[in-house]
Write a structure and sequence with these properties.
mainly beta; elongated
Length: 451
């Protein structure tokens, strides 16, 4: 048989069959473009290969629908696309790097689970990482479980992070974990309805403007909400539980912290550290307790409110209950408005470190103090005598905490009453000239009216 006849009768059928199988395989792997009734072009993918192909080939504005399955590897979104998962869609970065990297604006990622991404915080390993310029991105209803950052974004704007579940690796040392949400130079983000636990900081914001942080649940982590060098932010209806600190406002300006709760923190409920022109209003702060604390040591006891070198802030209508220290103020924090709060059953109601006389009332209304022993003969709801929540005897007990058990004795109560009577307008310390006689029945809203 000649060489050409051999190819024609023996090899060609085999080659043709193999080529046909390859073509069928390629056709099977290639995503098939379709169009919805609303005109949106979409494609359905089933595995990592078809997803990579769709990310590369789909036109801008298209929708990629993921079938349930395991999507291993790393995926880059470099054009405006919508990624929609279904129950059982799992991205697995196999312990290295970021699972999904977004470098284009107008991207949406919804209903996927991401696991096993990297834990190199220097390299910003994250479940979902947004690169500079990825503006107007929506990340909605995803579940992220891993050791590095949950969502990391830098130099973007108009980001929406809604209804995600983010969980860190509790086997990793707390400070070696990534933050649940880390936003660096991000302007006008909306972060709402997320549940974040077992990370370093729940939500960390640095050098951004105009964030809106609403209705998030933050638990078992360092700081629930942590601001650094930010401006004109608002946080409302968030809950922080079992944290080192609830809400840390550091070197920031113009933050409105309204109607949030923190329970079972260790170091502080709300911290104002070199932060100015903030409004801290209608928050509930309960049971801030530091284990193995040293009585009388400001930095080792749990503080409901901690004002440290902060000025021109309004602290209004908050409920501060059952903390080791109700409110602490130090390092020049005198120029703040503190009124219409209630301080209930804190071991030490006020710890003021300073040499000035500080008035905590406004327009004839002060705060409610559970330890106030005055009376109200005219029945106007305001105590007839001023209240000194950190008088000379209080300061003496700070120096000698072993004598604290004497504070409820009749003789000490008499001495505190006498000290109150002889204090003059030049005496140093906090004074409430118009103490409220009954606990507040309602918090004060951000408009100044009862909620």
């Amino acid at each position: 048989m000649s060489y050409f006849r051999l190819i024609k009768h023996r090899l060609w059928p085999v080659l043709a069959q193999s080529l046909g199988l390859c073509l069928c395989g390629l056709l099977f792997m290639a995503p098939v473009l379709a169009q919805s009734s609303d005109g949106t072009r979409h494609v359905t993918v089933v595995d990592s290969e078809t997803l990579h192909s769709a990310l590369a080939s789909m036109p801008q504005g298209a929708e990629i629908r993921l079938k349930p399955g395991l999507y291993r590897g790393h995926f880059h979104i470099e054009k405006p696309l919508t990624l929609i998962g279904a129950p059982g869609v799992v991205f697995d970065a196999q312990g290295v790097g970021s699972a999904i990297v977004v470098s284009a604006p107008g991207v949406s990622i919804t209903r996927v689970t991401v696991q096993r991404w990297g834990q190199d915080l220097y390299e910003k390993d994250a479940a979902i990482r947004l690169m500079p310029g990825a503006n107007d991105v929506a990340i909605i209803a995803n579940r992220l479980v891993g050791p590095g950052f949950g969502i990391y974004a830098s130099e973007v704007s108009d980001l929406r992070l809604l209804d995600n579940q983010i969980q860190g690796d509790e086997q990793t040392f707390l400070l070696d974990r990534g933050d649940g949400i880390h936003l660096l130079k991000v302007n006008h983000p909306t972060v709402r309805g997320n549940r974040i636990s077992k990370v370093r900081d729940g939500i960390y914001l640095e050098s951004g403007i105009g964030s809106r942080i609403y209705s998030n649940h933050l638990s078992d982590l360092q700081y629930g909400l942590h601001y650094m060098y930010t401006q004109q932010d608002e946080a409302m209806d968030n809950q922080a539980t079992r944290v080192s600190g609830g809400y840390a406002l550091m070197n920031s300006q113009g933050i409105h912290l309204i109607a949030n709760t923190v329970k079972h923190a260790q170091e502080f409920g709300v911290l104002l550290n070199l932060t100015h022109d903030a409004k801290i209003q209608a928050n509930q702060i309960e049971a801030t307790q530091m284990a193995n604390s040293v009585a009388g040591d400001l930095f080792s006891e749990g503080k409901g409110l901690f004002v440290y070198g902060a000025q021109r802030n309004q602290i209004i209508g908050n409920s501060v209950t059952g903390n080791q220290i109700g409110i602490a103020m130090a390092l020049g924090g005198e120029d703040n408005a503190v009124y219409q709060n209630q301080f209930l059953a804190n071991t030490t109601q006020v710890r003021y470190v300073g040499e000035q006389r500080v008035e905590w009332s406004f327009q004839g209304r002060g705060n409610y103090w559970s330890d106030y022993q005055g009376w109200d003969l005219d029945g106007d709801g305001i105590g007839d005598s001023q209240h000194l929540p950190n008088d000379n005897l209080d300061r003496l007990f700070w120096l000698y905490p072993e004598a604290r058990f004497l504070m409820e004795s009749p003789i000490v109560k008499l001495l505190k009453w006498l000290d109150n009577q002889i204090q003059d307008e030049h005496s140093a310390g906090v004074v409430d000239s118009y103490p409220l006689m009954v606990p507040l029945n309602a918090f004060v809203s951000h408009t100044g009216e009862a909620l």
